[in-house]
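[SOLVED] Need 3D model of a three-part complex

Original post:
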Amino acid sequence: MLKIKNLSKHFGGLRAIKSCSFDLKPNSITALIGPNGSGKSTIFNLISGALQADAGQILLDSQNITRFSPEDISNAGISRLFQESKLFTSLTVQENLLLALDNQDTKFWKNLFGKNQVTLDQTNRINYILKLLEMPEKAHQKASNLSYGQQRLVAIARAVLNPHQLLMLDEPLSGVNLQLRNQISKLLLKLKKQSATILLIEHDMSFALRLADQIIVLDAGEVIAIGSPKQIQSDPRVIKAYLGNELC
Amino acid sequence: MTFAYLLHLATMLGINMILALSLQLTMGITGLVNLGHIAFFAIGSYTSALLTLHGMPFTGAMFVSALLAGLAGLLLGVFTQRIKADYLALATLAFSYLVHALLLNTHSFTNGPLGLANITKPIIFGFQVGANWAFLIFTTVIAVSVYLILMRLIDSPLGMALQATRDNELALRVLGKSTLKLKILAFVCSGCLAGVAGSLYAHFVTFIDPASFTIMQLIPIVCLVVLGGLGSLNGTIVATFVLILISESLRFLSLPSSLTGPLTQMIYASLLFLVLIKKPQGFFGKVSLK
Amino acid sequence: MVAGAIYALVAASFSIIYATNKFLHVAHGAVLALNTYFLYFFFTVLGLNFVLSVLLTMLAAALVGFTISKFYKQLRDKQASSATLLLGSIALMIFIDSLILLLFEGNTKTIGLLKVAQGIELFQAIITPLQISIIVLSLFVLLVLSLFIKKSRLGTTLRAVADTPEQAEILGISANQVYTASFIIGSIVATLAGILYGLEHNLAPTMGIKLVFTGFAAAVVGGIGSIQGAVLGASLFSLVENFGIWYIPSGYKDALVFIVLFLFLTLRPHGIFGFKNKIPL
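Solution:
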């Protein structure tokens, strides 16, 4: 579904990504792991259009999206979660999620004279996911009034609601307490059961190995290993890259 | 403190309010620090004045003024798409100075520093809006319409998208919305409304010159928007009343006129600075400046 | 050429302040104007000796720089964004400009120091001894400034604080003191430019705007934060201005400055020598 071919990116003198290539199959979960600074977030930025690659190609179902803007990439079918939640702080939770649903019309005259009502379908979908995350009562709270963990949940919900074929999650579990982590894990496992295609970056190794069908290991901007969780766990290059970290 | 004076004051209040409300759309709602707003006002004024002086009926002139001012908004929106915050503020400020310099120097067109005089009073549906009370009613109608239009837009999905652009532009882009189009829309709409205010102004005071459209006139408007609160239309309205009343009350101190001008400016400037330090949200605002 | 030298001084002083404080201090022009008016006050109104007046003015300039820094500190302590700082700077600018109007009134003044002397012919342009001294002095000051920034302890400290204020704090450097120092230096250099300008031209409350916008434009074009950039930008501008006189009516010169500034700010904000921000969106 998603093909990365020889992707490269440098910042001034620093070569952050050196000719990376990998494939993502549909209906599978892929985890992108690697030590700090290996370039995981940079790859995410390149795929989602926040950064432009210096060389290489990104193909989504054989459509070349390498030079696409972030909004075009979203409309092509990729939804992304950032490491920081990036919520719309002055809007309510419901409004944050409404903006993700595709049928938000921003045509000028329609908004000036039209009915501008939230449809039942939209409300249902929002309530459904809020219930899944056990926060339905927060729908009309201003996003800035939520705790860090709750904001993370809303950010994840927003990424999930954004219509997509591929969901990219940058460290969905980071920084939240145990209870919320369990909720997020539950949601991701549910998505897995529904045959979602997910690419995720996660430092929690046990979770990544449990959830993922395929693991890609990155070190210093290069792909050093691709394989199933079992293969990766016993790969000497991977162990060397982490040097002392336990892969349980 | 004659009745005519009060009518005059109220009309200027109305015009300033339209200016401030339209600036609220770009600055407060969409998060664009647009210091080129006074240029929109100038373009609206001069266009309306020139067109009517050459025989075009008022309604047509006002329409074209709004159009041209909106086009200026389009220009700014397109050019500033890649720059943020303080650079945006400066680029738009440079634009204001640019327009001012052009107005001052294209003598053949605009009469340069001598300005345009004898601007006619508007004639709408055969009725001449000449008397002060008539003009006040006219201005109030327009001001209320502008308020209602903006209220409608802000509460709509479009308004939500504009506010999201302000809060986190990249996050909105990865949801599939073109923030460039949204920002341009805000600039154009804001420009059109400022152009309308400019047209009103020209036909009210019947004499305009480039000196009426400098940063000195812009700062009080910015002050209104920031003081009333970014993102709040109602805050802007309250702030307009409060500030205009403060500056008018200076008249009662019977200072020589060469002093009241600078003094008023100093008060506005100090107020702006104080608000930025003490209460950057303004009184009713939702957000502070990015 | 003379104008270029003066612009270069303004641009350099502006760059120092920007490089250290990381925001655009538009009130710079007003500060320049205010201090130049002080010279007028000391020399022409009070009738003091010229050298004494200049010294007093420099002192006043340092004081003004110090005060301005304190004002900005208030904003900085509230974690103000760069746009907020800019607006605060604009408010300061309006305040100072109005203050000048209040204290000195709007009509033009002159610092009548040297009579207009006979010029020497140089490259088919007439240039007076005064103008020569202005250029020489400006170049000297710029050179001293560059060396100071590069070599001296204060200069290095300035650059350190500009780069990473938090780390500088850990090393025991008080960021606030450094900010203040940059404003004082910037104010003094700009005042020098103002004085040199005032010797040749009349003083008007709006002189600050023209000088600072052109100086600022030069800094932007040359690359904000770099002194060589400031000099390059200023030279470019004065060249264009001087040759432009033959083709473009003088009023449009102002418009030209703003057009160039606008284009650079929107299309190439890092200027010619400045650094592009490498951090992703």
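Edit: Chain B has twelve helices and two strands.
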